[in-house]
Amino acid sequence: MLRPGCHTERKAPSVRLLHRWSRAVLRFDEENLVSCAGLAPVMALAERAGMSELVTEKVEITNAPIASTGANPSGKVAAIVAGMVAGADCIDDLDVIRHGGMKRLFGGVYAPSTLGSFLRSFTHGHGLQLASVLRAMLIGLAQRTPVLSGADQMTFVDIDSLLRRVYGHQKRGARFGPAKVGGYQLLLRGLSPLVVTISTRLAAPVIAAIRLRGGNAGSSRGAASLLAQALVTAKAAGARGMILVRADSAYYAGTVVSAARRAGALFSITVVANTAIRAAIAAIAEDAWAPVHYPGAVEDPDTGALISDAEVAETVYTAFAGTRHEYTARLVVRRVKDKNNDDALFPVWRYHAFLTNTTLSTVESDLTHRQHAIIETTFADLIDGPLTHMPSGRFSANSAWILCAAITHNLLRCGRRAGRWYPRSSPRGHPAATHRHHPRPPGSTPTQTRPASTAPLALVPSLACPVAQHDRIQPTGDRNHLTKPPQGPTREHT
What we know:
This protein is α+β, with helices and mostly antiparallel strands. The chain contains 13 helices and 17 strands.
């Protein structure tokens, strides 16, 4: 706005945040509330599955730079898992288990700095110890929950890898590896976890084995040994029926096929297109192709025949000829009309072939093999959770981090299967409080606290509740304590 006789425009005053507010830190400090009430049943399930006992038995850190860093590994692993369940995706986020009334609900709570030092004290051998805890935990969970229901009939073991991008040049193991972004193949700096999952026709995937590798590692590097471990775990977890190993073409290797056969498992692995494969496909008779259900498939209203842009057929093929892994099996081929050549005089087909030794029909083998993509749901859960970041500059610390993430994933999967309870939290955020603790004992004051616990993270005795068969939380006592206001002296919060 210009005043009479004034030829310059006045600037509007700027609104600035006071300096004392720029230094403020938001914190959930209500002592009677917790930000993640669903954490209680998940950690109760972890204790019933023997997580603390397994870590105490298998993990021993004696060569840490500071002796106290490796002390009480069971409590620290439990604290890391609890933080991940509550939505932590980096070491600093593990502070969520110290907010509000968490210390009154759980014993053995550690600061993020302590947990970070604990992770950095890991070596390759300690990572192997923690990996054995992951396998034993899955077996214990399968015995207590229906997380692998249907494993006595048919079990699917899927193996695949992903690249987690990192940006620090000092992060150990970070190398440039292939990744697909927006449909384009790129080389990105990162770390490459190799994952093996177990699922059934009735149960979603759980992680049986996971191993961190450098970003430039080939997809099949270490796949045979990790697959062998996962197959042993699957059998111990109740896979008494047929076991089918599924993988894409990156794992078309004689060592992988031989590892599956030695364990008594069947396999279904996409083959790499080469001259021999193309010759085998060209030899398939035209009348051997059968249509399959595919997007856009319809039935002929007159004959009832399936009209589809996809067809399948099979032939016999000897893989890895001339090597000690030579094996003759079924080569199932799916061909799909190329949409880029719709105007061609004759159909132009794209071929996708996989090698399998199952006894399923051709169509059923194709449908079952394509369901290997279910492992991507596990990757999505990990990427949207603990694997949002690789939090440490040390390779062994990141390896321990992804093993804790796998334990967390399996616990949450069991929670969904067992009782449909799990904390609704998001990474780096803490939802509104949903649970109120027992009222303070009469005569207590707000400054009185429970004695520090040296036990692993677990429900304190007054709040622990039994977990029945299949780990469904059963109500005990009077439920009114969840809604009654605290008794005795209280403190005003401002």
